[in-house]
Each structure stands twice: as C-alpha cells, then as structure tokens.
TrEMBL record:
Protein name according to UniProt: Malonyl-[acyl-carrier protein] O-methyltransferase
Organism phylogeny: Bacteria, Pseudomonadati, Pseudomonadota, Gammaproteobacteria, Oceanospirillales
Pathway listed: Cofactor biosynthesis; biotin biosynthesis
Molecular function, one GO term: S-adenosylmethionine-dependent methyltransferase activity
GO term, biological process aspect, one: methylation
InterPro entries: BioC, Methyltransf_11, SAM-dependent_MTases_sf
The enzyme's E.C. designation: 2.1.1.197
Role, per record: Converts the free carboxyl group of a malonyl-thioester to its methyl ester by transfer of a methyl group from S-adenosyl-L-methionine (SAM). It allows to synthesize pimeloyl-ACP via the fatty acid synthetic pathway.
Family: Belongs to the methyltransferase superfamily.
Gene name of this polypeptide: bioC
Domain Methyltransferase type: 53-145
Length: 264
C-alpha cells in the first residue's frame, strides 16, 4: 500500500526544489526583487524593535536590507529552500530556519514584526498563511510585505492565450481580496497599495531567464512540459510585436502590504 502525498505537499516540494536549483543564478537575474525592495523598505517603522522574521528570505538580499534597520540579532531569516538559507548565511551571520509559511515552527507571539518580499504568492492557502502570521505576531506586531497581484505578467499571459489558450503562470489575487482576507484573519490598519512595475529586456531569452533563473517557473495547476517549437515560434513572434525602444516589456502588478495585529 502506497501513501498518497497531498497535492499541496508535492507543490511545496517542487517550489523548494526550483528555488534551490536557482540559487546560483538568482542574484544575477532578480531585477524585480531589487526594484520591489527599494519600494518596500519605506514601509518599515522608523525604529523597529524586538525580533523580526524575514519570511521567504531567498538569497539574503531582503535580509541585508532589513539588517540596515535592525541588529542582526533581531532577525530570523526563514525560507522553504535549504539552499537559499545557505546563501543567506554566507552573506550575513543571522539565524536561519527552513520553514513552510503556512505552518510556521514558531511559538505564538514570537515576533514584533514580519517582513517578506515576493514570497507569499507561492502559498496556496492564504487563509492558513494569514492565520499563521497573526499567530506568531505579538500584540500590535506589524506586517510589511510585498507580493504579486492580479494582472501581473500581462504581456506573457496575453501571448500564451493567443498561442494555446492556456495560463502559463500562477494566478494572483486582487488587492481588494488580500485586504479582505487580512482583516478576516484579525489584522487591523490594513493597507494594500498596488503599483505596476515594468521591466524591459533586450531578448526574449533574457526575459524568460528573469523568471526561470530565479526559480519562478512553477505552476500549481499547469503541467510542466516542453512546448512545441511551433508554439514557441508563435509566442516569440507575438512578443516581438511588443518591442519598444526600451526593449521587450514585462509588467508586474505589485502589492505593498502593511497591517498590524490587534492589541488584545
């Protein structure tokens, strides 16, 4: 008799493996993360106190920025990928924990704040995620998070829909839905600010590398397979029609989230 592995467990294993495989190319291709972190940093409180969790720390760039506002002893960096955590430790002497954001291995009220950039979009069960974040925050603890919103990868999506009618990336929630879900979890002072960010690439290969070589090529509901050459050629022709003086565009809708736990 074989044990059936839950679908979400297989998905998380795949996400962890993809990011671990991308650990050596991530920093070279993480253009989006670099831009998003610049915009997320001002949402941090002026003088953050207590212990903070960097959730989905990746290779440690987000942790490095957080350490400019906090001492390294005030930071715990967590990620689903063991390889990413190793890279973080190479950059900074911070405590690291391999953790699933939907089942955090921390006690209740362990953190004064949670900082996370472009990580929670990989979570399948957001209600469970937000309940966990609420659980591990102390009273009046703060969330400072960025994630992807509905409408991200617009050009990529449009191209593949024309070619084969399929979605080739994960689906993302609206800002309004995230706000509703956070309030349902008990958070207060919830703000979800949406901002489009467009990156430009000289070639389609460079554009797809910006996804593939940071590990962002996993879909929860679309089988991974080699595309037929004819489909790829049609997709390439569509994307070339979008070329502008800056290059080939790829637009993300980024959500910047601030919220607090109630003072119970």
């Amino acid at each position: 008799m074989t044990t059936q592995i839950p679908t979400d467990h297989r998905y998380k294993q795949t996400v962890s493996r993809r990011f671990s495989q991308a650990v050596d190319t991530y920093d070279q291709h993480n253009l989006l993360q670099q831009e998003v972190l610049k915009l997320l940093l001002p949402l941090l409180p002026t003088s953050p106190r207590g212990l903070w969790l960097d959730l989905g720390c990746g290779t440690g760039e987000s942790t490095r920025l957080l350490s400019q506002q906090l001492s390294q002893k005030q930071i715990i960096a967590a990620d689903l990928s063991p390889a990413m955590l190793m890279k973080t430790r190479e950059k900074l002497p911070v405590s690291t924990v391999c953790a699933d954001a939907e089942a955090l291995p921390f006690a209740e009220k362990a953190f004064a704040g949670i900082w996370s950039s472009l990580a929670i979009q990989w979570c399948l069960q957001r209600h469970q995620l937000f309940n966990e974040l609420y659980r591990v925050l102390s009273a009046e603890g703060e969330l400072v998070i960025s994630t992807l919103l509905e409408g991200s990868l617009e050009q990529f999506d449009q191209g593949w829909r024309q070619v084969d009618g399929s979605v080739h990336h994960n689906r993302y929630p609206s800002a309004a839905l995230l706000e509703t879900e956070l309030m349902a979890a008990g958070f207060t002072q919830v703000r979800v600010l949406q901002q489009p960010l467009t990156l430009y690439f000289t070639t389609l290969t460079a554009l797809t590398d910006s996804l593939r070589k940071v590990g962002a090529s996993t879909l929860s509901d679309v089988p991974q397979a080699q595309f037929a050459k004819s489909k790829w050629r049609a997709f390439s022709q569509f994307y070339e029609s979008l070329r502008c003086p800056d290059g080939l565009p790829l637009t993300y809708q980024v959500g910047f989230i601030y919220a607090k736990k109630r003072n119970l």
